[in-house]
Design a protein that fits this description.
By secondary structure, this protein is α/β, with parallel strands linked by helices. It has a single domain (about 5-285), classed as Spore Coat Polysaccharide Biosynthesis Protein SpsA, Chain A. It is built from ten helices and eleven strands. Strands 1, 2, 3, 4, 5, 6, 7, 8, 9, 10 and 11 form an eleven-stranded mixed sheet that branches. Helix 1 (about 25-40) links the parallel strand 2 (about 20-25) and strand 3 (about 45-50). The longest helix has 14 residues, at about 25-40. It is globular and about 55 Å long.
């Protein structure tokens, strides 16, 4: 494990969210992401980076911008990165966001509306992502109109048209960008480092929240964020997260998101315990067999 360093600056007392962004030598997208937060947010926020390696100048840029950050000399993966950066959070709410995302105008206002409408702090809410390519995710808005990389990014068009796509609130919030009360994050211990560098760490985190009694996993249809889909996973040796999840929880992650989180279905309130259908019973039984 790499030694992790920390750098903090004076916190804005008006900051509403602590936005954690892990980054790995991806400075052009990181700068665009941070700029969008500063430009398109309705409220001030604390931005916290975890700089993996920083060979592209991203650590120097973080210091120049006086952004709170943690840093490791090598890539420690998503789980350690998010956990490290989260220790610097000064607000009551943690947002986890990827460095290749661009927040649309008032993305934070719509999340705040959802939060303040609740009378409890047991929730996990995701923004709705706009992506340039189809991935089979029912929660995503797909449009090629805004480009797929910085060089052809249609920023002005996105800001004007991002709300033109119909999308209601949906069940099963689990992927970034997402928001959670910091106390709830601390209760479940953040991201599970045994899933490093990070495959299947998202559904694992949601299952930990489920075990802690969380039943509101909401996708906010009005809070929209563009995702370039410039994944870093092709540069790392992946963990076998599919196997790990099944061994840990006695259930395939696909069955968890389908039967527990009702992922992609219209949002109709807090979730309930899943019905023990034959399909779910069979999935549990198969999880006890040797992994194929």
């Amino acid at each position: 494990m790499e030694r992790i360093e920390f750098k903090e600056y004076s916190a804005d007392p008006e900051a509403r969210f602590s936005i954690v962004i892990p980054t790995w030598n991806n400075l052009p997208y990181l700068r665009l992401c941070v700029d969008s937060i500063r430009t398109n947010s309705r409220y001030p926020h604390q931005i916290i980076l975890h700089v993996n390696e920083g060979a592209d100048g991203s650590r120097a840029w973080a210091e120049e911008q006086q952004l709170d950050h943690s840093r490791s000399a090598r890539n420690v993966g998503v789980c350690y990165a998010v956990n490290a950066a989260a220790t610097l959070a000064k607000t009551d709410y943690l947002v986890y966001m990827n460095d290749d995302m661009y927040v649309c105008p008032d993305w934070d206002h719509y999340l705040w509306q959802d939060i303040t409408a609740l009378n409890h702090s047991s929730f996990f809410i995701s923004s709705t992502v706009i992506e340039p390519k189809e991935s089979g995710n029912p929660c995503v808005i797909v449009s090629e109109a805004f480009g797929d990389r910085i060089e052809n990014f249609q920023e002005d068009a996105l800001k004007k048209q991002c709300m033109d796509f119909p999308k209601e609130d949906w069940q099963g919030g689990t992927w970034p960008p997402n928001i959670i009360p910091k106390k709830l994050w601390e209760l479940v211990g953040g991201y599970s480092v045994e899933f490093s560098p990070g495959m299947y760490s998202d559904p694992d985190f949601s299952m930990k929240l489920w075990q802690a009694g969380v039943r509101l996993f909401k996708g906010c249809g009005r809070s929209r964020v563009f995702h370039f889909m410039c994944k870093s996973t092709g540069r790392v040796v992946k963990n076998d997260g599919r196997h790990q999840f099944r061994e840990k929880w006695g259930l395939p992650s696909s069955q968890f998101t389908k039967h527990y989180l009702n992922i992609g279905r219209p949002f109709d309130g807090p979730l309930t315990e899943p019905e023990e259908t034959l399909a779910l019973k069979w999935a549990r039984l198969r999880s006890r067999l040797p992994f194929l």
